[in-house]
Amino acid sequence: MDPDLAPEQDPPIGFAPPYIDEATIAAVERVLRSGWITTGPETASFERELASFIGCTQVVCGGSWTGLAGVVLDWFGVGPGDEVILPAYTYCATANVVLHRGAHPVLVDLPPAADRDGLNITWDMVAPLLTSRTKVVMPVDIGGWPILNGDWKGALEVWSRESGFTSDHPVQSLLGRPLLLADAAHALGAQIDGQQAGSQADISIFSFHAVKNLTTAEGGAAALSLPASFHAEEVQRTLKSLCLHGQSKDAAAKFKSSGTGGWRYDVTRPGYKCNMTDIQAAMGRVALERYPEDLAHRNALADAYDQGLAEIQHVASPVRSDDRRRSADHLYVVQLSALLCSHRDAIMGHLGTAGIATNVHFPPLPTLSAYRERGYDPADTPESVDAYAGAISLPIHRQMSTRDVQRVCRTLAQAISTVISTGTK
User: Fold this and answer.
1) Which residues make Cβ contacts (< 8 Å) with residue 363, sequence separation at least 6?
2) Handedness of CA 240, 61, 59, 92 (dihedral sign)
3) pTM of the entire structure?
4) What sign does the dihedral 394-399-402-403 (CA atoms) show?
5) From residue 342, how far is each of 43, 337, 366, 386, 398 by CA, in Å?
6) In this predicted structure, what is the pLDDT of residue 6?
7) Across the chain, how many H-helices and E-strands are there?
8) pLDDT per residue over 325-371, tens digit each?
9) Which residues of 307-390 form beta strands (DSSP E)?
10) What are phi and psi of 2, to 5 degrees?
11) Phi and psi for 290 in degrees, rounded to 5?
12) Helix orientation angle between 402-422 and 291-309, rounded to the nearest 10 degrees
């Protein structure tokens, strides 16, 4: 065939390219030209706008989810000998920040397949693991499916009264129970009972990494919804200070009052360097303003996937809604049947050859060398390993159309048919 007469190739479908529009570029340019690019007025405005969107008391923006999670653990006094309960099925950052404090991650397996709540752990799996050394419970909203549809705070209070919560830090004593710290990296825009995810836990931490629904290139935000015994503004100031080496003043505060000795500052405790810059915040403010529109687009794509995959055998779609909850549709993770698990790489390869990028979220922590070397055994979390074996994350992002989704579904059906007929692995 004459190359000039060959049918036009479909353009590639990336997995999760960031959506950078002209308004984002203009906002970043405005900040660059302002002469103030580090943490300042733009970040403060972003924090206020996020708190309003989420419906929480205060927000602290930082340079990454990881940095913020570490700062929160430090603020709560987590250290050697303490335990933090978290899922085995999560990205390594959830547990890495615990190890960095010298504490011990206690891994929770998924429930059996028939009882699963998406790829999230459940309270029934957490409760038996609580001990006198438990300082934090850190559930994860995998893929944007919100986990805290029950009263986990109340359950922790009951357990603490009946079993005796052991405190060795003033903040722990003030709370009187383990901290409920939600890894909400995927969940901005998810809803529970019509309320935004982020106000159900004591503190919820979101990620604004490049692949997230809302991106600031890197970055994150901690949403505070602590009991009334805490002064939210004081906690916010403390966490912001810990994000800047423990300084009592940030650069903007010092600059504003430098003529009257206001440059002077103290370091109240050794913190870290994980503050958010005004450049990042400018990106975030634009993305937050259009976020309802972005979410609606993702919801439509996920609806199209639900419809397109309904007729494909051996593939199960993710749970996205129930009578109380709605997903943020950050990931669209399908589960292959047992027949196809050993063919997963071949299926993903077929999609890749057709120009469709896919991914897998996530290898359970006990399957990773860093955790196996610390004594974690995949055999102890068999349901997580089983779920991972059949997981494929299909592309879903703002640049896609429902026609793209239909193409992904057709190509996936073709790939499954090919591997079944040929036995390709």
Assistant:
1) 388
2) negative
3) 0.95
4) negative
5) 47, 10, 20, 12, 31
6) 41
7) 15, 13
8) 999 999 999 999 999 999 999 999 999 999 999 999 999 999 999 99
9) 315-316, 325-326, 332-336
10) -60, 125
11) -95, 5
12) 30
For residue 106, what are its two tokens? 């206690």
What is the number of residues in the chain? 425
Domains and CATH numbers, the chain: 22-289 (3.40.640.10), 291-422 (3.90.1150.10)
Residue 128, both tokens = 């038996």
As a whole number of angstroms, the distance between CA 197 and CA 220 comes to: 15
Alpha carbons within 13 angstroms on the beta-carbon side of residue 75 total 27
Evaluated on CA atoms 69, 71, 77, 82, the torsion sign reads positive
Q: Tokens representing 402?
A: 């429902």
CB-CB contact of 112 with 134 (8 Å): no
The pLDDT value given to residue 15: 98
Please state, in angstroms and rounded to a whole number, the distance separating the CA atoms of residues 142 and 355. Answer: 26
Q: Compute the half-sphere exposure of residue 182: CA atoms within 13 Å on the CB side of its CA.
A: 31
Count of CB atoms within 10 A of residue 268's CB? 12
Per-residue b or e along 103-127, where b marks 16 or more CB atoms closer than 10 Å to that residue's CB = bbbbbbbbeeeeebbbbbbbbebbe
Collect the ranges in the chain with pLDDT lower than 50: 1-7
Burial group, residue 138, by CB count within 10 angstroms (0-12, 13-18, 19+)? buried
Is there a contact between 64 and 93 (Cβ–Cβ < 8 Å)? Answer: no
Please enumerate in sequence order all residues whose Cβ is within 8 A of that of 176, keeping only pairs 6 or more positions apart, or say none: 157, 160, 165, 167
pLDDT score at 169: 97
C-beta separation of 249 from 265 below 8 A:
yes
* Phi, psi (deg, nearest 5) at residue 294: -60, -45
Distance CA 264, CA 157 (A): 42
Kind and range of the H or E run holding 105: strand 104-108
How far, rounded to the nearest angstrom, does the alpha carbon of residue 159 sit from its chain's CA centroid? 27
Structure tokens at 73: 């653990």
Question: 344 and 390 in contact (C-beta within 8 Å)?
Answer: yes
